[in-house]
Design a protein that fits this description.
With 550 residues, the chain is of the alpha/beta class. Helix content is 51%, strand content 7%. The strands form three sheets. It has a four-stranded mixed sheet. A three-stranded mixed sheet has the order 4-9-6, with no helix packed on it. It has a two-stranded antiparallel ribbon with strand order 1-2.
C-alpha cells in the first residue's frame, strides 16, 4: 500500500470517529469547529432545528478571490446551501433542492454551465469538463444543445454483478438509441446542463419573476455582499416558488418521483437536444446498492415515478407525440412502462405451472407449426438481449444475472410499484418516499463479494417471489413424474421448459430457503407464508378446474 493510500485511510478513520461522536452527542462540539467562518455557520443551527422545519442557511466556505490551496493556487468558490423547510410547504424532494441551488447560484455567480452529481459520485477523468464544453460551446450547436449526459458507472460491484446494478440498458445501451434521435435522457447525475435550458425552449425564453435569476444576468457584486446574500436567502425560502413557474415551466420539473427523466423528457419536448457522451475512461464513478432489498426499493420508486409521467397530461403517448414526434415518444414510453412488465411476468410465473400440475396443456405441441413461433420469439428476444449486452462489454455471467434480476423485478418492485401507483391514483394512502441506502455491514459485504443474495430483510416483496419459486419447483417435479408415467412430453414441453428455466434461475432462492444459516437467508416467516400461498393457489386452481369440467 502506498504512503498516499495510508494517509487517505488514516484521514477516513479519523473523520469516521468524529462523525460517530457528533451523531452520538447530537451536536457538533466546539473542538471540531475550525475558524470564525465555521463557528458562524454552526451557530445558525439551533436546538429547535429539525429536518422538516428550519430556516435557510447559506455559508460561503471558500472564495476564489482569496482562498488558496497548500501550493498557493486559488480555490474555486465553495458555498454551503441549506434551503428553508416548513411542514406546511411542499419541498419536492431532490427536484426542489436542485431548483433552490439553481436560484442561489444565479444570485452569486450565474455560471452558464451546471454540473449535477449525486453525493456518492466522484470525478474519474479531469478532462471531462472539456468534453462537455466542446458540445455546449460549439458555434454551430450552442443554441440547441441543452445538456450532455455521461453514463453512470459504478464501483464496488461484485465480479458477476448478481443484482445487475450496472443497469446496462438504462445507462449504456438504450442511451445510444436515444442519441440517434434527440439525444440521451438525463439520469440524475453526471450531467452538464446549459443554464439557459432551464428557462424555456431554444426559441422561447421564460423570464423569471426576478431579473437577477435570468440565465444571462451578469453578477457584478462580491458573493458575500449584503444585497447578494439577502437575495440568495430570499430565493431559498420555502414559500418563494408560490405563484411562480418554477418546477412547471422553469428549472427541474415537478410531478414525478423520477425528476431526472421527467425533466429531460420535458426539455426534449420543448425542442432541446442532448448528447450521450461515453468515453473509454469513465467520466464519473459512483456507488450501487449492495443489497437486494435496497436495489428493489430503488427500482420500485423509479417504476412509480415513471408511471406518474405516463398517466399524466404530459404522457409520451399523447403530449410527447405532439411535441417531439413518434420515435422519441415511443422511446420514453418504453422507459415509462417498466412496471407494466409485472403483468406478463406474473402470468408466466404462475399460469403455465398451475396448468402443468393439473395436466393441462396450454401451448402448442412440439409437432405443430405454431410451436416454431414460440421458439422464434424466445430465441429472438433472448438472442438480441444477449447480443446487446455482450457488445456493450458485458460478460456471459453478468448477462445471466441481468436476465434473472429482470424476472425478479417483475414479481417484486415492478409488481408492488404498479399496485402502489394505482392505489395512489385512487386516493388510497401508501408508504412514503424511501431513499436507497448504500451502506452495508462487513458480513453483508463479504456475502455480496462471494455472490450470495441478501434476503435477510422480512419484506413483503419477497413473498410473491418465493411463492413463484416454490410453485415452479413443484410443477417441474410433477411434470417429470407425469413424463415417467407415460404422458406425452410434446404436449407439455413448453410448460416444462418454462418451469425448468424458472427453477434454474431460482437457485439462489432455494439456497436461501434451505441451505443457508447466515443472516442473509430468507426469514422463516416469509418461507411459511409463501408455502401457504403456494398450496392455496394450487388447491384453488385445481378446485376451479374440477368445477369447470363438471
Amino acid at each position: 500500500m502506498t504512503l498516499r493510500m495510508l494517509q487517505l485511510q488514516t484521514m477516513y478513520h479519523s473523520m469516521k470517529i468524529k462523525v460517530e461522536n457528533v451523531v452520538k452527542r447530537g451536536k457538533v462540539g466546539d473542538e471540531y469547529i475550525i475558524g470564525e467562518e465555521g463557528q458562524k455557520a454552526f451557530n445558525k443551527w439551533k436546538d429547535s432545528f429539525t429536518r422538516q422545519d428550519h430556516p435557510t442557511v447559506i455559508q460561503v466556505l471558500l472564495q476564489n478571490s482569496k482562498d488558496k490551496d497548500i501550493i498557493g493556487h486559488l480555490m474555486p468558490n465553495l458555498i454551503y446551501v441549506c434551503r428553508q423547510k416548513s411542514r406546511t410547504s411542499p419541498h419536492h424532494f431532490k427536484a426542489g433542492a436542485l431548483n433552490v441551488l439553481l436560484r442561489v447560484s444565479a444570485t452569486m455567480t450565474n455560471a452558464p454551465i451546471i454540473l449535477t452529481l449525486d453525493c456518492d459520485v466522484y470525478s474519474n477523468d479531469p478532462s471531462t469538463p472539456l468534453r462537455a464544453l466542446c458540445y455546449l460551446f460549439s458555434p454551430q450547436d450552442q443554441s440547441k444543445f441543452g445538456f450532455i449526459q455521461f453514463p453512470q458507472i459504478f464501483n464496488g460491484i461484485n465480479k458477476n454483478d448478481i443484482y445487475a446494478c450496472e443497469f446496462k440498458r438504462l445507462f449504456q445501451i438504450n442511451p445510444v438509441g436515444f442519441d440517434g434521435l434527440n439525444g440521451g435522457n438525463y439520469v440524475g447525475t453526471g450531467c452538464f446542463f446549459s443554464r439557459r435550458a432551464f428557462f424555456g425552449g431554444p426559441s422561447k425564453l421564460v423570464s423569471p419573476e426576478i431579473p437577477e435569476l435570468g440565465p444571462y444576468n451578469v453578477v457584478d457584486k462580491p458573493i458575500q455582499s449584503q444585497p447578494i446574500m439577502e437575495l440568495a436567502h430570499k430565493v431559498a425560502g420555502c414559500n418563494y416558488e408560490n405563484q411562480t413557474k418554477w418546477g412547471y415551466e422553469m428549472g427541474v420539473r415537478y410531478g414525478s418521483l423520477v425528476e431526472d427523466s421527467f425533466t429531460s423528457y420535458r426539455l426534449h419536448c420543448e425542442g432541446w437536444k442532448s448528447i450521450f457522451c461515453n468515453p473509454k475512461r469513465p467520466a464519473f464513478l459512483g456507488d450501487a446498492p449492495n443489497t437486494l432489498i435496497d436495489m428493489l426499493n430503488q427500482h420500485k420508486r423509479w417504476a412509480i415515478g415513471l408511471l406518474e409521467v405516463v398517466f399524466s397530461k404530459f404522457s409520451p403517448l399523447t403530449f410527447g407525440i405532439r411535441s417531439m414526434g413518434l420515435p422519441m415518444s415511443l422511446a420514453y414510453a418504453q422507459l415509462g412502462c417498466w412496471a407494466i412488465w409485472s403483468i406478463p411476468i406474473t402470468i408466466y410465473a404462475f399460469l403455465p405451472q398451475v396448468a402443468l400440475i393439473n395436466g393441462i396443456s396450454i401451448f402448442p405441441n412440439v409437432s405443430e407449426p405454431r410451436f416454431l413461433f414460440y421458439v422464434f420469439l424466445f430465441l429472438g428476444a433472448y438472442g438480441q438481449d444477449f447480443q446487446d449486452f455482450i457488445l456493450s462489454s458485458g460478460t456471459v455471467e453478468r448477462w445471466w444475472n441481468d436476465q434473472r434480476i429482470w424476472m425478479i423485478k417483475g414479481l417484486t418492485c415492478y409488481l408492488f410499484g404498479f399496485m402502489e401507483f394505482f392505489l395512489k391514483f385512487l386516493g388510497i394512502s401508501t408508504h412514503g418516499f424511501n431513499v436507497t441506502s448504500k451502506v452495508i455491514d462487513d458480513k453483508q459485504h463479504k456475502r455480496y463479494e462471494q455472490g450470495m443474495y441478501e434476503f435477510g430483510v422480512p419484506s413483503p416483496m419477497f413473498v410473491p417471489l418465493v411463492t413463484a419459486a416454490i410453485i415452479n419447483l413443484l410443477s417441474f417435479c410433477w411434470g417429470l413424474v407425469e413424463v415417467f408415467r407415460g404422458s406425452k412430453l410434446e404436449g407439455l414441453f413448453v410448460q416444462m421448459f418454462i418451469t425448468g428455466f424458472v427453477v434454474v434461475n431460482s437457485w439462489p432462492i432455494y439456497e436461501a430457503m434451505v441451505l443457508r444459516s447466515d443472516k442473509g437467508k430468507i426469514p422463516i416467516r416469509t418461507t411459511l407464508i409463501s408455502i401457504f400461498l403456494a398450496w392455496g393457489l394450487v388447491a384453488a386452481a385445481s378446485l376451479t378446474l374440477k368445477e369447470l369440467k363438471l
